[in-house]
Design brief:
- The chain is built from 20 helices and 44 strands.
- With 919 residues, the chain is α+β, with helices and mostly antiparallel strands.
- A 10-stranded antiparallel beta sheet has the order 3-4-10-11-12-13-20-17-16-15. It has a 6-stranded mixed beta sheet with strand order 21-39-40-44-41-42. The chain has a 5-stranded antiparallel beta sheet with strand order 9-8-14-19-18.
- A hairpin with a 6-residue loop joins β15 (290-294) and β16.
Length: 919
């Protein structure tokens, strides 16, 4: 009947009778199964749905198989419990919610007044503390952040995110494919999948040290720092201080909770740590397959998704050392129709100790704590994942034995060293705060390690994305950039194209016709060589991928390619990408745009194979200029071909891409111009102008005119926006792609797309216009979007990390979009450090060529690279009568050229003074 109704159902008949000489029950079961399978199909109906009947014997199953079957079954019927009708009747009855033993109302009393720190750039909700290294939110009188203001905390293989209210999720190895607890991108509810509960055993009063899931009275303080988040709240005579972090070398999240009795009487508290298990991509998909158990050595709850194909065999754990009771059943914990704001299990004396299959899986672990007046106690809650039960037990015991304060100190020291490589002090304090930590932290912790934020849990590497992110690390951590360059090159096919994105553990990814990925490899590698001086990377052998081409008529193809036995030096990988890009040239002499260049949303501009991209022409020219010198000794014929093609592309752009006051964006398949004054929509596009400058190839007068046009048409100082293009796509009959599906003014469709805006900052600095560069940097700085309560309410998102986009159309004009997981963080760092301050590196030499605002007279920079430490003073001096200025290193005069000054990187402390003409 189910098959006839097109219902795919697998029916398992499990014989629990022990095997013996008499097999009458098993024979009867097998006969019934054969009869059902042989029943003829009714005429005139569709082919039956998939699904069959399986007859199994319990005593012949592999250990654990029965538990797995019970775990994944949607319905379990037991013959000894009556016929089907009787069992279904029992299933349909609604459980009666047990009456809750509510605590008596507390007598009115004055709430404790916490010590509120003095914060920089305080906007009524949050501000900076600890010299800008912490962002502190203060939630009082029921206030919440306008949208979730989160922190992303990670090491290279494990991490979590958490909001100022305390909601978040944990992952291991891959932030999308292997979520340990639930990820949500609901900015309205910000649902919690983890919680710490405090309960007074005598009064029954229940509360949480964070604003979620139980919001009480009083003040909630959250401190997001580099590598940790800290929460402080005092209620019911208990002061709670909770720090969450990830050790540098362990796949675990540590929650260190310190409780202090501020009252005059002894207090007995039940402290419960709770987490919902996912162990995959979503709870709905994985919950039936999760089996829980306890670790006999530690008492921790272990959880395993027995049907995981992406991460098979891995064991998650939750530990709250010395528990008095526990449960792995969420239905028990929250109760029928319950919520985490009022879990019914906490109204009972203890938790049931339930584990096993066929549960709504969670981990709830409870401890009792007795506190004398003034006494404190510290507890640690661990969530993590390893590859076996034994490894989980060993890691739990190791982390229990270590001092959590020492582990946290090592995390803080790590980030202090890494982020402290370049420290600046300028007249713009908001700029200092971002460049001294937050932008680099956002780039490494979120973009490269976590690859996830509140609004997107990707888990994948984007080919062009992390290549660009890595460029921000090359000055201070070239070894990290090197590692990723080789990782990315291994995702290239022999023809020269690449996986646009891929999942690192399986290798699955998407092969596309997007045109710029293959060019970024050469650009990134050549820039790494120029900055680090490490040319040996060009000779590193790297394999190719094997896989089918994108089918005709398709934009892309998702599959798992094979790793080829064919390898080639990294230089050859870069060269093949350039060769293919050159081969894909349009009839007008400019590169074909394919199904998108940098702007993926323009995926139908050139889907017919004839549309072209001016912007890609600039990128190709810049890449050839970087790669050709490397090819001169390795493949001089190639170098000559590349340079010849460069000249042809430049001529094509200058003759057909110039629109009179700016550069066009490209052409559609039918030859219609994109990004022209004659265009109805998308008349001027930012990136074609900025890269005319960044490539160094455009006619100088045209380049300046293009940037002036960009400023006139795309920079809107009043709402503080730098648009990607204008007007947005809306009513034009032209079909540029899915970008037109966004409402006008949102994301790539004519909103601010911060990635492109950072290129504009760098272009202004490259032109030597320090005022324009800094004005645009300040306009983009998220701190300046949330200086007042009204501004923070309008902008909504975090003011301490850059947003990928900002909306440009009323009624949402000025509202921030996706935050954290954006490549604009790395480019903003480079725009400030390399563009405005002019700090770069050429192998073993440090270079300075600043483009400072005219009003700045004194800038201080400290650079620490290995054993070399440089204290740099950039000073404006009216006594300097020549444009290049003067410089000295440790008191000795230096030669200053038109492109700045260079000094050797040498161990020790050095003083570098660069006096600039006050023009």
């Amino acid at each position: 009947y189910w098959q006839m109704r097109q219902m795919a159902v697998d029916l398992v008949v499990l014989n629990d009778r022990m095997s013996s000489y008499v097999q009458d029950l098993q024979i009867a079961i097998e006969s019934a199964v054969r009869a059902a399978r042989s029943r003829p199909q009714a005429s005139g109906i569709h082919a039956p749905a998939k699904g069959t009947i399986h007859a199994l014997r319990s005593d012949l199953l592999h250990p654990g198989a029965r538990a797995q079957l019970l775990s994944i079954a949607r319905v379990i019927l037991v013959a000894s419990r009556g016929d089907i009708a009787q069992q279904l009747a029992r299933l349909s009855s609604v459980p009666v919610t047990e009456p809750l033993a509510l605590p008596a109302p507390e007598p009115s009393q004055a709430l404790p007044e916490p010590e509120i720190p003095t914060l920089e750039f305080f906007n009524g909700t949050g501000g900076y503390d600890r010299d800008g290294r912490e962002y502190v939110t203060i939630l009082q009188d029921g206030r919440t952040t306008p949208a979730p203001w989160i922190n992303v905390v990670a090491n290279p293989s494990f991490g979590f995110q958490v909001s100022a209210e305390g909601s978040g999720h944990v992952w291991a190895e891959n932030s999308r494919e292997n979520q340990l607890t639930p990820w949500s991108n609901d900015p309205v509810i910000d649902p919690a999948g983890e919680a710490i509960y405090l309960q007074d055993v005598d009064t029954g009063q229940i509360w949480t040290p964070t604003a979620l899931p139980i919001r009480g009275l009083g003040t909630y303080i959250a401190r997001h720092g580099f590598g940790y988040s800290r929460f402080q709240h005092e209620a019911h005579g208990i002061a709670a201080d909770m720090v969450q972090f990830v050790p540098l070398d362990a796949p675990a999240k540590i929650t260190r909770l310190t409780l202090r009795n501020t009252g005059p009487t002894t207090r007995t508290l039940a402290v419960t740590a709770y987490a919902e298990w996912v162990l995959g991509t979503s709870k709905g998909a994985t919950a039936p397959y999760i089996i829980t158990r306890t670790d006999p050595s530690t008492g921790a709850i272990l959880a395993q998704n027995t049907f995981s194909t992406a991460f098979p065999g891995r064991v998650a754990f939750a530990d709250f050392g010395g528990v008095s009771s526990f449960t792995a059943d969420r239905a028990e914990f929250i109760g029928p129709g319950g919520t985490l704001a009022e879990p019914s299990a906490l109204r009972r004396d203890s938790l049931s100790g339930t584990t096993g299959p066929a549960l709504d899986p969670c981990a709830a672990l409870q401890r009792r704590v007795i506190l004398q007046p003034g006494e404190s106690a510290t507890l640690s809650f661990l969530i993590g994942q390893t590859d076996s039960d034994a490894a989980a037990s060993a890691l739990i015991q190791r982390l229990r034995a270590e001092d959590p304060n020492a582990l946290l100190a090592r995390v803080e020291d790590h980030w202090s060293t890494l982020l402290g490589a370049v420290q600046i002090k300028t007249p713009d304090r908001a700029m200092d705060i971002l460049l001294n930590g937050w932008l680099m932290y956002q780039t490494l912790a979120c973009r490269i390690w976590a690859r996830a934020g509140f609004y997107q849990a990707s888990g994948a590497y984007g080919f062009r994305d992390q290549l660009q992110d890595g460029m921000a690390l090359t000055l201070s951590r070239p070894e990290m950039t090197r590692t990723h360059l080789l990782r990315a090159a291994a995702r290239q096919f022999p023809e020269g194209d690449v996986q646009h994105w891929w999942l690192p553990h399986s290798g699955q990814g998407v092969r596309t016709r997007i045109s710029d990925d293959r060019v970024w490899l050469g650009y990134g590698v050549a820039r790494y060589v120029a900055v680090s001086g490490d040319a040996s990377i060009l000779d590193e052998p790297v394999p190719f991928l094997q896989g089918p081409p994108v089918p005709p008529g398709a934009h892309d193809d998702f599959f798992q390619p094979q790793v080829s036995e064919d390898t080639a030096p990294l230089f050859e990988h870069c060269a093949r990408g350039l060769d293919q890009a050159i081969e894909l040239t349009g009839d007008n002499g400019m590169p074909l745009i394919g199904t998108g260049d940098w702007n993926d949303g323009m995926n139908r501009v050139g889907e017919g194979g004839r549309g072209t991209s001016v912007w890609l022409g600039w990128l190709l020219i810049a890449t050839i200029d970087l790669m050709a010198p490397l090819a001169d000794t390795r493949d001089p014929d190639r170098a000559a071909r590349w340079r010849a093609h460069r000249a042809e592309v430049l001529q094509a752009i200058e003759t057909q891409g110039w629109d009179g006051a700016w550069y066009r964006r490209g052409t559609f398949d039918d030859g219609t111009v994109l990004g022209s004054a004659s265009s109805e929509e998308c008349r001027i596009d930012s990136i074609a102008q900025s890269w005319a400058v960044l490539s160094g190839a455009a006619d100088p007068d045209r380049a300046r005119q293009a940037m002036a046009s960009m400023t006139e048409h795309l920079i809107r100082p009043d709402p503080g926006l730098a648009l990607l293009f204008t007007p947005p796509f809306d009513r034009t009959p032209l079909d540029p792609g899915y970008i037109k599906g966004y409402p006008p003014g949102l994301r790539e469709n004519g909103g601010q797309y911060s990635h492109a805006a950072m290129w504009a900052v760098m272009a202004q600095a490259r032109l030597g216009d320090g005022d324009a560069a800094h004005d645009l940097f300040a306009l983009l700085n998220p701190i300046n979007h949330a200086l007042t309560p009204a501004a923070a309410s309008l902008y909504k998102v975090e003011p301490y990390v850059i947003a990928a986009d900002v909306y440009s159309t009323p009624p949402h004009e000025g509202r921030g979009g996706w935050t954290w997981y954006t490549g604009s963080a790395g480019w903003m760092y480079r725009a400030g450090i390399e563009g405005i301050l002019g700090i770069t590196r050429k192998g073993d030499r440090l270079c300075l060529n600043p483009s400072l605002p005219s009003a700045w007279t004194d800038v201080r920079v400290t650079i620490t690279l290995g054993e070399a430490r440089y204290s740099i003073s950039l000073l404006k001096d009216e006594g300097i009568d020549h444009r290049n200025g003067s410089a000295s290193l440790d008191g000795s005069e230096l030669e200053v050229r038109s492109d700045g000054v260079e000094v050797p990187l040498q161990a020790g402390d050095h003083q570098l003074v660069f006096r600039l003409a006050a023009l």
